[in-house]
Amino acid sequence: MGGSSAAATSRANNVSCAANVTMDLPHQGYRPTKPRARAAPPTADSILFDDTSSVAPAMNNQGYYTPGYNMAGPSNDMQGGAVPNNMFADPMANAAMVYGSSLANQGKDMVNKEISRFMSVNKLKYFFAVDTKYVLKKLMILMFPYTHQDWEVRYHRDTPLTPRQDVNAPDLYIPTMAFITYILLAGMALGIQKRFSPEVLGLCASTALVWVIIEVLVMLLSLYLLTVHSDLSTFDLIAYSGYKYVGMIFTVLCGLLFGSDGYYVALAWSSCALMFFIVRSLKMKILPSLSSDSIGTGSSAKPQFRLYITVATAVFQPVVIYWLTSHLVR
Amino acid sequence: MAFTLYSLIQTAILCINAIAVLHEERFLIGFGVDQGVGGFGDDPGVKAQVLTLIRSVRTVMRVPLIIVNSACIVLLLLFG
């Protein structure tokens, strides 16, 4: 009850904030209710996620412990220091809560610092900046890529555009969700065949993960050995290699619904679609310097090898799809 | 093939051990004789890249490999 009224009040606050900003357009009947209307042009330090922390301090006098703590979390996040929420009559509990939240902040800062030594969190955030429209269009392209015309990834002053603004940009949201859905589907398929046990689920998950890791490592190794100077980072390769899970889910579903024939038809369809998608996407990234490379000394082997890499990646996808799904659909 | 993450770690450790114990003079003589050529310019070629990779793996992973191998030996002795 407290939670839903807090959500409704925050939505009302968002609406009033957005209305304050767009006061100069009174003739538009459409009132933007999303705070995204404020944060329209993304800069290099782009606002990838909506900032709802400005409405948090209004929720302090709820009298409930849990929603107040959740609302205080983002405000602590944004303001950098703990705003003491004096919710209890007992001063000891107040002091304990302030101390606890400052400890949590320190722990969070330390974890962030350690993680950002290994991988840059901003780069990871770029891959998760998606919205519904992008996800739907991307799934359509993955299943039916033959009508998509423009495969170039668009740039904005040397940084690639986020997936929200460019449908060709790779993202990590779809592969992650597809991976988890695949594991759940595998569990369900095995349960239908009465071969389910919890260990099998973990085995399936780790097998799929290991195949992705192997594929990414082989791709990185081959790109390094053939000195292909492309701007494919590790996350890009993980993203492109994770798109096959969408095909796998489609194949397993058809196999479960329509039997063995449906499985093979869906396997053929998703293999062709995925191969086309991978070749068209990687062609832009791996083979761009064919026309601009005027140094022709001994590089007659190079364009061939780049083509081999692209084709090998494409051919590898149906093999893995068949390998990982055939035992689920007998 | 049912892989587990543990088998991936085992494979990685075995491969890196293989690279570390490789005797360059005996086995790489017929492979890439032009180790002296710096490979400047933008096309070092596959063989030079492989040699560079092998050399850099040996240099970087020498000490961590000692630690990891010792840990593996202890764990395998204790837990089979």
TrEMBL record, chain A:
GO cellular component, as recorded: COPII-coated ER to Golgi transport vesicle; endoplasmic reticulum membrane; endoplasmic reticulum-Golgi intermediate compartment; Golgi membrane
Q: GO terms for biological process?
A: endoplasmic reticulum to Golgi vesicle-mediated transport; protein transport
Q: Quote the subcellular location field of this record.
A: Endoplasmic reticulum membrane; Golgi apparatus membrane
This chain belongs to which protein, by name?
Answer: Protein YIF1
Membrane topology of this protein: Multi-pass membrane protein
TM region positions: 172-193, 200-225, 237-258, 263-282, 305-324
What family classification does the UniProt entry report for this protein? Belongs to the YIF1 family.
What UniProt keywords apply to this chain's record, in alphabetical order? Endoplasmic reticulum, Golgi apparatus, Membrane, Protein transport, Transmembrane, Transmembrane helix, Transport
Q: What is its main location?
A: endoplasmic reticulum
The organism named in the record is Cyclopterus lumpus
- Any idea what job this protein has? Has a role in transport between endoplasmic reticulum and Golgi.
Automatic annotation (TrEMBL), chain B:
Q: Which residues cross the membrane?
A: 59-79
GO cellular component term, pick one:
COPII-coated ER to Golgi transport vesicle
A GO BP annotation: endoplasmic reticulum to Golgi vesicle-mediated transport
Q: Which InterPro entries match?
A: Yos1 (IPR013880)
Main location group: membrane
Going by the entry's taxonomy, the superkingdom of the source organism is recorded as: Eukaryota
- Keywords on record: Membrane, Protein transport, Transmembrane, Transmembrane helix, Transport
Q: Where in the cell is it found?
A: Membrane
- Does the record's keyword annotation contain Protein transport? yes
The record ties this protein, via PANTHER family, to: IMMEDIATE EARLY RESPONSE 3-INTERACTING PROTEIN 1
Protein family (similarity comment): Belongs to the YOS1 family.
Q: What does this protein do?
A: Regulator of endoplasmic reticulum secretion that acts as a key determinant of brain size. Required for secretion of extracellular matrix proteins. Required for correct brain development by depositing sufficient extracellular matrix proteins for tissue integrity and the proliferation of neural progenitors. Acts as a regulator of the unfolded protein response (UPR).
Protein name (database record)? Immediate early response 3-interacting protein 1
- Taxonomically, what lineage is the organism? Eukaryota, Metazoa, Chordata, Craniata, Vertebrata
